[in-house]
What does this fold into?
Amino acid sequence: MKDLERLLLERRLHEVLCRYARLCDERDWSLIGEVFSDGARAEYGGWPLRDRAAILSMLRKHLGGCGPTQHLLGNLQINVTDSHVSSRISVRAAHRGSAELAPLYYEAIGEYHDQWELTTAGWRIAFRQMRLLLETGDRSVLRPAA
It folds into this structure.
């Protein structure tokens, strides 16, 4: 792969990753198909999710009733072989409580390890593994919408 092709690929993957952060922080669930492939699977902190619907359900369960959040992504690294594209990106996700939990916060620091699939609509995550490195605060702020 030529340098320019690699840079363009990295940019396209980065755009999808930013779309994921927006999906989470704005609770724009309609973006799920612009981030994950139809057959996507994931593992968040050791919890397996068998399909895209399960991924969306988990996100709604944890963020739907949460207060403001900010998912910061950085230090993207991509790996390209003849038949495989994967990436690794650092994540720092800050969560504030809502309503009676507004004074509380929860912060997760880790990495997303993604395997990518090129679909007719563009690059999508086919498998995600979230590796949690550090947590601080109170997980009770993560809750579904009332």
In short: The first helix runs from residue 3 to 26.
